[in-house]
Amino acid sequence: MATGGASPGWRGFLPREAFDTLLRALEAAGYECIGPRVEDGAILYRGLSAGSDLPQGVEEAQAPGHYRLQHTDTPRCFAWAVGPQAIKPHLFTPREALWETERDADGRLTFRPVEPGPRPLAIIGVRACDLAALALQDQHFLRAGNADPYYAHRREGLFLVAVNCTHPAATCFCVSTGDGPQAGDDCDLALDELDEGYAVRAASSKGETIVQQLPLQALTEAQQAQIGREREAARSAQQRTMPAGNLRDHLFNAWEHPRWAQVAERCLSCGNCTSVCPTCFCHQQVDVPTLDGGNATHYREWDSCFTQNHSYIHGITLRPDTRSRYRQWLTHKLGSWHDQYGRSGCVGCGRCITWCPVGIDITEEVSALLAEAGK
Amino acid sequence: MHETTAKPKVAVHKFSSCDGCQLAFLDMGEDLLTLSAMVDIVHFAEAGMLDADATVDVAFVEGSLNTRHDLKRIQAIRRNSRFLVTIGACATAGGLQALRNFTDADAWHSAVYATPEYLDSLATASPIKSAVHVDLELWGCPVNTRQVTGAVRALLSGVTPAVEQDKVCMECKRQQAVCVMVAKGTPCMGPVTRTGCGALCPRFERGCYACYGPAENPNTDSLSHWFEGLGLLPEQLREQYHGITSQTEPFTAAGNRYRK
């Protein structure tokens, strides 16, 4: 587990001015590099060609329904908590063509799969919560005997450079879910950022190959002590918590709790929470025919349990109102996920709190739901 | 297909509107040739074909109802059409001209026109469905070619066209746009507005202004409350709902809550 007692295992210190050697080594290994960049008022993962592209000095403030960047004097480039998206859209893409259909002159149909294409991708600056979410997405999309080939192709080509989180947002609660803030071994390289550069750890054989190409210096005892202090500070700085353990029975026993109706008065049923959630995997499939009806493309795209269409089956909408949709999301995410995947579907990243347009706080709702009904 | 089978007949009619939605046909590019090979476009004034009284399989109707003459025309179009499809905010939700429904329009007549006695306006500007049964509504200001093409294809295939009714947010997130309300505090109607535009405005860092009308299950009360917190004054709040799609029940009511 990410927060367990994994030995530091640092291989050395990469000075800030040598950061580009990491990018060059990854590129030489065939990877396209993406990492955090400031765009449209947020930290997004975009193409990275040099360390100078990184958001140096950028911090952010998050609160329910609120996200703002702020510029500081810190020389650091990873002094922020998670932005709106990280790994999910690069593996489980928001919209992609799965197959194409062609109708010949006699009306016969030919189906052609659309092969997944992108080249190997290195994502730099992922957080422990996103690695935990990735493990859950892997469970879902790479299920033995039933793996999704599109996801699998991209997953196979993925190289992950984790940077341990030292600046949790007010919306973060990964300590309480056991998923952060320190990355475990579900990545290839793990970095700890200091003012002057990065402590580097290899977490996979692919990572080891890259590490050997970096101009690493010795990591001093003072630096190690500083990293230890910052890791501890990142844990103790978290303000929110998710109750520990399997909440399934508690939540299903609260099926008629008045809180569901109360949260439905605020909830917009807009699907933002599920879209930013790094573990939500629901999707729908749509066919887009050409005007002459001769060809069609079959797409898979993100869907949400908050849409009407999601629970529509053969003339019936099972969840017509917001109360039933919010309840579906929460009881699945924190309840029946335990039966499906052996753990909760929440990794404590806090995105659903920040990016809810009206600031609904999952930790607050769970607390209320676990309190005795009717209080 | 049997060679004696006649091509389906299509008409494009216009009421009070800016003509912009009809461009969804004219902007089809190569598909416009495909369309004209598959159907007979018997009436489409903006493109030059004139036979307003023709009996058709599909009538596309743009614009809202504003005069007694409009009411007679739409009844005739309904009688002459197997399917009646409204296109755009004017036809589906009143459009910009329906803002007069919230004012003393008679007073404007004499202020604006030298000879107001020539006017024959109804008391309100109304969507087409206020007068006749509508089989399918395509929302937006303007509608786009993708919507029109999709509807035509579905009708030609004899299947019910897919109804797009999710919130704009769903598509905004698929497009990986940064939420303008959360990241900038910009009021955005996306969480109550019907999808179909591809989240065009938020992708250019502008709040959605609801030109596709209400989505299914819209929670206008909660969004209004959040807008209040962002500092919107009652008149600004009213304008969020009483814009291009004001003549829809949820938005009429939501805006009326902030009328003086």
TrEMBL record, chain A:
InterPro entries: 4Fe4S_Fe-S-bd (IPR017896), 4Fe4S_Fe_S_CS (IPR017900), Helical_ferredxn (IPR009051). One of its GO terms (molecular function) is iron-sulfur cluster binding. Keywords: Iron, Iron-sulfur, Metal-binding. The keyword Iron applies. Residues 258-288, 337-365 form the 4Fe-4S ferredoxin-type domain. Signal peptide: none annotated. Pfam families: Fer4_22. This is Sulfite reductase subunit A. The lineage of its organism: Bacteria, Pseudomonadati, Pseudomonadota, Gammaproteobacteria, Thiohalobacterales.
TrEMBL record, chain B:
Residues 18-155 form the NADH:ubiquinone oxidoreductase-like 20kDa subunit domain. One of its GO terms (molecular function) is oxidoreductase activity. Transmembrane segments: none annotated. Pfam families: Oxidored_q6. Its cofactor is [3Fe-4S] cluster. Keywords: 3Fe-4S, Iron, Iron-sulfur, Metal-binding, Oxidoreductase. SUPFAM superfamilies: HydA/Nqo6-like (SSF56770). It comes from the Bacteria. PANTHER family: COENZYME F420-REDUCING HYDROGENASE, GAMMA SUBUNIT, HYDROGENASE SMALL SUBUNIT. This is Sulfhydrogenase subunit delta. It comes from Thiohalobacter thiocyanaticus.
